[in-house]
């Protein structure tokens, strides 16, 4: 099966499971907690979870799917809280939870999803011992995500963020939840410790590369294509890998922190391309994917392993 | 050992364990997460956890103390988020986390403690199966607490809150975490299912009664004694059991929603006492404690059982 079809099928499955778990909210708070969760999303974390589980034990993901939902629910909890912190009004084409219900209810809605994430892992049909390890990993991951978000916010007041600091931030903010998705799939399917570790590292790397690709898309993709404001990171002076690489090459991006016309964005892209900034950033992301894919050598040759390879490259080949 | 000495000893133990777990914060976010946790507190939930554990299996609490900390950490996570929602500036005589670090960091600080709570349960030295049950109970409890806080906030816009709604709210907002503290102690010490259930109900009842006593203290205790603003609930028109009982008895408290002198508060208390409001509310709390204590019949006669009885009465006999 091709990756695209696999992702579509998983998204449908996840949506239907979420519907059966939470489709009948009894309270206003449950409605607020459901809002973003039911507003779509690519459901990439459950897909990664399933692939990792079935790669180590064919067919095993079916029994443990509640844990796959747990990772999607965790992701949505972090988005609700992030949107409050970042004062974002829209997400997935819908108004954000705090915009609709107010900040206090949005804090609680995120907290409700946080609880549900742990409830769901407990519901997986798996031996108790790996379940406890999976729960401990999810808890550690949530703490890392908080650290990543805090670092990201602290970067807004700095001009001197280093490459290593940036990579640590994206790994924590985005990578570790992909790492956990893969590792928890392996754990609950009773893979070996080296498989758990390798798949965790694979997930962290493709997640971090995903974020770098997001930064590239922000600069390169037209608003028509991405649905987002082109070059907003540059205008806002955000410390992305593009900005950091430019600084390393002696390019001052501060003059570009202002409203930019399409032509100006085009000439900015040309300049960054000529100076080798774009290719350097693309290279970094590609190296992460290459390294992630190499780590899959702990897996036997299965359809799922091939899909994991495809998924890794998809993370940096998508253009919106 | 008397209850007071037991609570003092447990608080010291909890403070020292927290120090060894989190005493050396490496990041600004960890500092924010530690702030309230290290600002004291009575540590009643770990004390209840220990008593319940040792009541079913003497000496067992020592092995599972991380889970006792988990309940204190959970409590502190909810306080940090509640303080943001309620815009409170002080707690435990110190500035609140959001006042010192800002709301975004305070949301994250609460989220970090939330993660730590689940990490800590995983660290308890207990069989895996009850551990998973304990984690599932903690997750359910966190969801209940969120519902309770949401109900409490929604009551602010209502004048018609019923006795049952109030009791459901305080049970969720305050009771269930005491219920979990006791039940998780029993679970991890491998008590019977009927002991788990009885101790959960015991904790829910004494926790709800604790909240009712808080409402009584708000009205009856002088500011000198309680350190809080006397009769603030009445002035703010809060739907407490006192306000609900008064309404049931045809007493209109709306004229008292204004700054009140000491003499006015004294005559308000006299009036509510004469009309039987105070005794009715005290009665309700006493009945809850009586019922909670009756539930302890599932326990053998031990020092810990006696302390659990004392603890229950202490919850409504404290006067500040």
Automatic annotation (TrEMBL), chains A, B:
GO MF terms, alphabetically ordered: metal ion binding; prenyltransferase activity
Cofactor(s) for this UniProt protein: Mg(2+)
Keyword Magnesium: yes
Any one GO BP annotation for this protein: isoprenoid biosynthetic process
Domain of life: Archaea
Keywords on record: Magnesium, Metal-binding, Transferase
Keyword Transferase: yes
InterPro entries: Isoprenoid_synthase_dom_sf (IPR008949), Polyprenyl_synt (IPR000092), Polyprenyl_synt_CS (IPR033749)
Matches recorded under Pfam families: polyprenyl_synt
Family: Belongs to the FPP/GGPP synthase family.
Protein name from the UniProt record: Phosphoesterase
UniProt organism field: Methanospirillum stamsii
